[in-house]
UniProtKB/TrEMBL annotation:
InterPro entries: HNH_5, HNH_nuc, NA-targeting_endonuclease
GO molecular-function term, one example from the UniProt record: endonuclease activity
Organism: Alteromonas oceani
Protein name as catalogued: HNH endonuclease
Signal sequence annotation: none
Domain HNH nuclease: 74-127
Alphabetized UniProt keyword annotations: Endonuclease, Hydrolase, Nuclease
Classification via PANTHER family: OS07G0170200 PROTEIN (PTHR33877:SF2), SLL1193 PROTEIN (PTHR33877)
Length: 180
């Protein structure tokens, strides 16, 4: 279970493992908790025979520096996840190893390597399109490529998002894509 760490303004900052989250609790840096899922860590025993316990929420807001870095690296892993592992030309779903990154305006023709100019494509469609635009190849895109916002970035970064974490993140997703 990964814990979603927010800054004091409520914006996502990081995914933490349970022990990193426990450190924030031990340092009294947790300002508030969200979500309804919790995990309990058991510690040592005291003289009275009582075991210490630390209850950790799935979403915690922590004190500290507010960092607003909304940039997300353009990697195939995140790209394929953004596009739900669908070829945006033929509409079929594939495993990650069967997909490629297609530049809508080909790089050989001045196209940029950015979120708005790339789409997930199967190898067959990417080869068929070649160094042409979708219009020239008569292969229209099935969805409009977009740059993920801060909340969508955190969705892309974690494969095992808990229901309450997804509920928190999804309320801030852009209208361009629903990953629900």
């Amino acid at each position: 279970m990964l814990i979603l760490r927010l800054n004091k303004a409520g914006a996502p900052q990081d995914w933490l493992d349970i022990y990193q989250a426990a450190r924030y609790y031990a340092q009294n840096k947790v300002l508030f908790e969200l979500g309804n899922q919790h995990r309990t860590l058991l510690g040592g025993w005291n003289r009275e025979g009582q075991q210490s316990q630390l209850r950790i929420s799935s979403i915690i807001a922590c004190d500290g520096k507010v960092v607003q870095n909304g940039k997300i690296a353009l990697t195939n892993r995140y790209l394929f996840r953004r596009d739900n592992y669908l070829c945006l030309y033929c509409g079929n779903q594939f495993r990650s190893g069967q997909l490629t990154r297609d530049h809508i305006i080909p790089r050989s023709r001045g196209g940029k390597n950015n979120w708005q100019n790339v789409a997930t494509a199967c190898a067959r469609c990417n080869h068929q399109k070649g160094a042409r635009t979708p219009e020239e190849a008569n292969m229209p895109l099935l969805a409009v490529p977009f740059a993920p916002n801060l909340y969508e970035r955190f969705y892309l970064m974690n494969r095992r998002i808990l229901a309450d974490q997804m509920d928190f993140l999804s309320h801030h997703f852009s209208q361009r894509r629903a990953w629900l």
